């Protein structure tokens, strides 16, 4: 099975990898079939863990290979990294500014983006969908980079990134489905809305892979762009949400470090 996967077209590899990450989002949302609430300390820890995974993935899987590729292509490595990284952050800021969304646990008066009459459930799904855009893009770019046959891009590193993103998607699916269930939505519909937040990942993954295959000269920028977008999500959303309760901060901090360590192990050992 592994050999068969390695022989696939890189775009198809990216699609399958992001279907996996989408599936883990659905698994997290599926908790609504077994319980109507999740312990808050556990939820905060899982969000902290997800933040750690994304921070590690941003460096080990995206920034470091992007800098090395820039150097191999004769670019100015630090300039490529800064332009791509800040470009990813600016892109997410603009998306955050204009896309209507609502973060779990907040009232409708705290919704962000362009004002709309959309339902609360739709806005909650869009909040997590916003997180998933850079994650799917990062996986797609990573598999596209392998096809470019550059030394710093390996299939093991791309697979490690997909696994890491998948692991941290579990609490994101739960973070959408559980609040909807507590508000009286049926288990089936809560699950559907929770898993729907991850559907953007296969789309973004295919776009990312196609983009770098067609324009390999911008690959270092694309890797750093994905890293910047992911760090924006971590700093603007995951860390504040996970550390919103003072009594859980120490536990969440250790969970964040644990997530970072696991992603680092995956990337270094598989990459």
TrEMBL record:
Membrane topology: Multi-pass membrane protein
Subcellular location: Cell membrane
Gene Ontology CC terms: plasma membrane
The protein's name in its UniProt record: ZIP family zinc transporter
InterPro entries: ZIP
Keyword terms of this UniProt record: Cell membrane, Membrane, Transmembrane, Transmembrane helix, Zinc
Family: Belongs to the ZIP transporter (TC 2.A.5) family.
Protein's UniProt keywords contain Transmembrane: yes
GO molecular function, one term: zinc ion transmembrane transporter activity
Domain of life: Bacteria
Transmembrane regions listed in the UniProt entry: 12-34, 46-63, 75-94, 123-147, 153-170, 191-213, 219-239, 251-270
């Amino acid at each position: 099975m592994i050999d068969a996967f390695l022989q696939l077209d890189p775009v198809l590899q990216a699609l399958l990898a992001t279907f996996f990450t989408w599936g883990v989002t659905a698994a997290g949302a599926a908790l609504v079939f077994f319980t109507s609430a999740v312990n808050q300390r556990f939820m905060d820890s899982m969000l902290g863990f997800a933040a750690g995974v994304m921070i590690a993935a941003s460096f080990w899987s995206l920034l470091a290979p992007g800098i090395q590729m820039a150097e191999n292509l004769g670019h100015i490595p630090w300039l490529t990294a800064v332009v791509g990284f800040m470009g990813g952050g600016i892109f997410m800021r603009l998306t955050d500014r204009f896309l209507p969304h609502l973060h779990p646990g907040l009232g409708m008066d705290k919704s962000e983006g362009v004002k709309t009459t959309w339902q609360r459930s739709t806005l909650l799904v869009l909040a997590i969908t916003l997180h998933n855009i850079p994650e799917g893009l990062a996986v797609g770019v990573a598999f596209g980079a392998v096809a470019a046959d550059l030394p710093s891009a390996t299939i093991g590193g791309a697979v490690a990134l997909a696994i890491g993103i998948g692991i941290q998607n579990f609490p994101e699916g739960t973070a959408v489905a559980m609040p909807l269930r507590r508000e009286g939505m049926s288990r089936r519909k809560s699950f559907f809305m929770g898993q729907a937040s991850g559907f953007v990942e296969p789309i973004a993954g295919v776009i990312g892979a196609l983009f770098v295959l067609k324009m390999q000269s911008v690959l270092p920028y694309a890797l750093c762009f994905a890293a910047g977008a992911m760090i924006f999500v971590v700093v603007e959303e995951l860390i504040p949400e996970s550390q919103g309760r003072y009594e859980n901060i120490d536990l969440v901090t250790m969970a964040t470090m644990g997530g970072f360590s696991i992603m680092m192990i995956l990337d270094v050992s598989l990459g």
